[in-house]
Amino acid sequence: MKGKRETYNLRNMKDYKNYYTIKATPEEVFLALTTPLTIHLWSGEEAEMSTEQGFEFSLFGGDIVGIILGTEKDKKIMQQWFFNQETPSVVELMLHTKKNYTSLELRHSNIPDDEYDEVVNWWNTMFMGRLMEFYDE
Predict the structure, then answer these.
(1) Does domain 14-136 have CATH number 3.40.309.10?
(2) Rounded distance, CA 15 to CA 35, Å?
(3) Could you give the C-alpha distances from 116 to 17, 31, 63, 80, in angstroms and in order?
(4) What is the pLDDT of residue 86?
(5) For residue 73, what is the DSSP state?
(6) Does 49 score more than 70 pLDDT?
(7) What average pLDDT does the chain have?
(8) Is there a contact between 28 and 39 (Cβ–Cβ < 8 Å)?
(9) I need a labelling partner for 16 at 20 to 30 A (CA). Which of 42, 87, 108, 112 fits?
(10) Residues 69-119 pLDDT 10s
C-alpha cells in the first residue's frame, strides 16, 4: 500500500503504583490536592488547580502541567500529565478511608522509561513526602 508514512514515538513506558498513609481525612487530602492555596501551603510552590474536568493545571511553578480528566469528590482525581509536551501519562489518585487516616493509592501510567526513576523519587520525596509531612506536624 502506498501513501504517507507516519512515524511514532517508540519510547519505552513504565507504570508506577504505590500506597501512602496520610494522617488526615479523605476530605482534607482531597482539598490539599485540588485547592491552589492548600497546595502552596504543603508544597511551598505555586499551583493552578481545579476539580473541573478539562481544566489545564500547573504544579510546582509550572514544572508539572496537564489536564484534569475527572474527579470524584473526596475519593478520586484523574489527571493527564505531559512529559516534554510529547508523551501524555495518566495519574490517578484514589483516597481510601481508614480508621484515623487516609490511604492514598497512586497509579501513574505511561512514564517514559528514561525518566521513571526520577519520577518515582519525585513522587516519594517532593510530592507525597511533603504532603505527609504537612499532616504530621
Answers:
(1) no
(2) 26
(3) 12, 27, 16, 16
(4) 65
(5) T
(6) yes
(7) 90
(8) no
(9) 42
(10) 999 999 999 999 986 656 689 999 999 999 889 999 999 999 988 889 999
- What does the block give as the cell for 69? 480528566
**What cell does 89 get?**
501519562
Q: Which helix (H) or strand (E) holds 121?
A: helix 116-122
Angle at 131 between CA 63 and CA 115, to 5 degrees: 40
Q: Whole-model pTM? A: 0.87
pLDDT for 84 equals 66
3-state secondary structure of 75: coil
Single-letter code of the amino acid located at 28:
E
Listed in sequence order, the residues at least 6 apart from 75 whose beta carbon sits closer than 8 Å to its beta carbon are 26, 30, 94, 95
Dig out the grid coordinates for 82 from the structure.
505531559
DSSP three-state, residue 129: helix
For residues 87 and 8, the answer to whether their CB atoms sit within 8 Å is no
